[in-house]
Amino acid sequence: xxxxxxxxxxxxxxxxxxxxxxxxxxxxxxxxxxxxxxxxxxxxxxxxxxxxxxxxxxxxxxxxxxxxxxxxxxxxxxxxxxxxxxxxxxxxxxxxxxxxxxxxxxxxxxxxxxxxxxxxxxxxxxxxxxxxxxxxxxxxxxxxxxxxxxxxxxxxxxxxxxxxxxxxxxxxxxxxxxxxxxxxxxxxxxxxxxxxxxxxxxxxxxxxxxxxxxxxxxxxxxxxxxxxxxxxxxxxxxxxxxxxxxxxxxxxxxxxxxxxxxxxxxxxxxxxxxxxxxxxxxxxxxxxxxxxxxxxxxxxxxxxxxxxx
Amino acid sequence: xxxxxxxxxxxxxxxxxxxxxxxxxxxxxxxxxxxxxxxxxxxxxxxxxxxxxxxxxxxxxxxxxxxxxxxxxxxxxxxxxxxxxxxxxxxxxxxxxxxxxxxxxxxxxxxxxxxxxxxxxxxxxxxxxxxxxxxxxxxxxxxxxxxxxxxxxxxxxxxxxxxxxxxxxxxxxxxxxxxxxxxxxxxxxxxxxxxxxxxxxxxxxxxxxxxxxxxxxxxxxxxxxxxxxxxxxxxxxxxxxxxxxxxxxxxxxxxxxxxxxxxxxxxxxxxxxxxxxxx
Lengths: 309, 279
What we know:
The structure holds two protein chains of two kinds.
Chain A: H1 16-28, H2 35-46, H3 49-66, E1 70-72, E2 79-81, E3 87-89, E4 92-95, E5 100-105, E6 110-116, H4 125-145, E7 149-157, E8 168-180, E9 185-198, E10 203-216, E11 221-235, H5 239-272, H6 292-305
Antiparallel strand pairs in A: 1-2, 3-4, 4-5, 5-6, 7-8, 8-9, 9-10, 10-11
Helix pairs in contact in A: 1-2, 1-3, 2-3, 4-5
Chain B: E1 3-5, H1 18-33, H2 39-49, H3 54-60, E2 66-70, E3 75-79, E4 84-85, E5 88-90, E6 97-98, H4 109-130, E7 134-141, E8 147-156, E9 170-181, E10 188-205, E11 209-226, H5 231-265
Antiparallel strand pairs in B: 1-11, 2-3, 4-5, 5-6, 7-8, 8-9, 9-10, 10-11
């Protein structure tokens, strides 16, 4: 066993860049909603404001977009979702619903101001008809199924299409986050649905990606990390009919997925967990520690009968 | 009567300045928030940021166990601080250090006898609960005329490992039980057990996609027991009891809380409402 007097290997001072990379790593790996708690602890172990500030400037935007954080707009028009799909510039994110662009402070995680989106940033009237119809249906679905869900529909391809004859692509985002520090609990649900409107085949190709996370850390540390990909399709119809069909598909898959997660959880105690450790031995009694003679006998018998168990 | 006290490792802060206290608290806070599967990276990052706290950190934090093959006995054994001397590790089967080490530390011959018996019996216990896996027990004398024993288990429950039901794509369970045994007084002895469980499991199937749970918890248990049936019996029973409690706690409380959270984010739908087109 290592004695107290063992010498620690010679410590080389970490370089500025090395410290910064470590700081970024901690920030980027913070669970949903917990980056500020991680930041506080990180500052205490770093003891270097300059390194922290630079790391934060680089890490927060990546974290915010990956977690699709929602920021309240000062115009009281609701929240804007910060994501790679809504990004106009590094600190500017478009809210298609209100046709505004939010200017954002990533490190403070606030929307500092909004400005109206200009024509180049907005989709054409033709595209907007489809986008708006879908946005309304998704909002309806989200308000029914998510107590605190926020959604957005962004056009990521073909936004200047004037009429039928071209392809275009939307991304539907649904995000819900819960932070309960007094209960040592946090969680997040992220849905990203790519809707590819294909003109030639008159088909909508739908690809979904769901990611669910939860963290419980009262006298311990446990995390859930669940994800699933989806594929579906429907026919290219009018804006309203497409909106209804897409929302139904999303609703169907997400509901089924939630049910499947429930099943996975219910199988844990008696099935999944058993592959790690049983609740009790096959004998259904506690281990007979006091009976050492029985052990040697049991081992002999097991060997003889070739019982691998 | 069982007393279970929940201590986060029992940090001893006597004689430590306020700043150092804050640094350690912050380090432990970070470790509680980083993904459990990245705990090695997180610890290594902290050791390089605050090397002055190395020994505190290493004693507070457990990492997934490593294994080495004892070629002489043909069996695997688990590596930890308690069987390490310099860069060599002592095998509980042959009682030799690998790689070989001169002037190394060994338990007394009496304690070694108990250690051998403990390894044999714990292997059977391990087999009955884990249906596979690897175990090791190490003992050493401590300064208080008692001794300390460390019982370790490592199990790979994945379908490519020792998972009997083939449920798991990935399944790792590491159990570390460190038990301090006080000197015998009037046929009684005081036992203080600290148990840490680290686990990670992942399934991957058609309906639920990739589903992964991982985490760790640590608890303590103290008892005063008669030595009539011997130390091994007492230690074994305490370990079995606390291990069972931790398993259930992880399953019901900890994983249960994450399940609750999912249902809070998106409650299960009673009725799937389908909207039909107006035409």
